[in-house]
Amino acid sequence: MFKKDWCFSLDEQIHEESAEEGGMFARSLSALRRGPARGVAGSRQIRLFHDEGTLAQGHRRRALEATAMARTHGDVVVHTVPALSDNYIFILEHQKRKQVAVIDPSESKPVVDRLEDLGLSLDCILNTHHHYDHTDGNLALKDRYDCKVFGFSGDSSRIPGITHHLSEGSEFHFGDELVEVLETPGHTTGHVSFYFPRSKIAFVGDTLFVMGCGRLFEGSPQQMHASLQKLATTLPADTTVYCAHEYTMSNAKFAITVDSGNQALADRFREIESLRSQKLKTVPTTMEAELKTNPFLRCGDGDLKRCIGMAGDAEEVEVFRRVRQLKDNF
Ligand SMILES: [Zn+2]
């Protein structure tokens, strides 16, 4: 069995770029040596322990990344896999039921590499929307693992290899955990978010970002505003939210221009700046943090309205439209 006492106890902020540095690499390796060796994870640890002198550095580094870039939520371990220039792919591993899912595989190779490092196969792909940087890995992964592909029913013709068609209120099980599907259009006309209420995690694709939201490529401001409100009202504040891109620094720089009086935002800006200066990831976030600092979720706030020159009684959706326009031209 996987046990978090060695496999997932490292500081989740240890990033692949940090792991390349000697000090962090040594620290990670010593952390790997600590725990017991059992099952799949254990066998990998033994290999690292005994063969570390002869293993290719690239292989060792990938193994370390695989450990550092993971976080446990109840029975579900979420492994973060950076891809393309700023995408995050998430591999979900149900520890008790031995099921594995991948969210939005923009590429297949980094997913296969990580699965092999972890000694895992793949049961299903979950796509939030049809864009290539969320689905390009679908067919190669389906071919290799004969896995299911879940996606929005209205985008059946745009999601490669789709086998399971989802819409608002759809539910399915991952291991023994119920997954709820929320339609969250706006970035694209078809977009779904996946909510795991027991583990208190959500995967929101390109709808909600850390201190930002997706561009309106196909949908309207009304749709995106409604989708963000749906997330804000459906997901409890302590939900951990996984977004599909590392856009946080640019979002934070914009946010302070439209919500300049927000002390929570100012504090978070400094945290984000520090993380990004060390090339550490800022995803996941929480609904609580977003409700306090994400301007796209604060369109009803009087100070924010004043900051962008709108009247106190301006409709929230109009405030949203204006904030989105400002961000598009930032
Ligand atoms: Zn997209």
Write the CATH fold name of the largest domain.
Answer: Metallo-beta-lactamase, Chain A
Second rung of CATH, namely the architecture of the largest domain: 4-Layer Sandwich
Please give the CATH class of the largest domain.
Alpha Beta
Strand order of the largest sheet: 1-2-3-4-5-6-7
Structural class: alpha/beta
Gap from first CA to last CA: 49 Å
The poorly predicted ranges are: 1-55
- The number of E-state strands comes to 15
Proportion of residues in β-strands: 15-25%
Q: What is the total number of structural domains? A: 2
Q: Number of DSSP helices? A: 14
Which outline best applies?
Answer: globular
Largest sheet composition: 7 strands, mixed
Walkthrough of the structure:
A seven-stranded mixed sheet has the order 1-2-3-4-5-6-7. Strands 8-9-10-11-14-15 form a six-stranded mixed sheet. It is globular. Helix content is 41%, strand content 19%. The chain is built from 14 helices and 15 strands. With 330 residues, it is α/β, with parallel strands linked by helices. It has helices at residues 4-7, 16-19, 22-34, 39-51, 57-68, 109-118, 132-135, 138-145, 221-234, 248-258, 263-277, 287-293, 302-307, 316-328, and strands at residues 70-73, 76-83, 87-94, 99-103, 124-126, 148-152, 164-166, 171-174, 177-183, 192-196, 201-203, 208-209, 212-213, 240-242, 285-286. The protein has two domains: 1-68, no CATH class; 69-328, Metallo-beta-lactamase, Chain A (4-Layer Sandwich). The structure holds zinc ion (ZN). Zinc ion is lined by residues 129, 131, 187, 206.
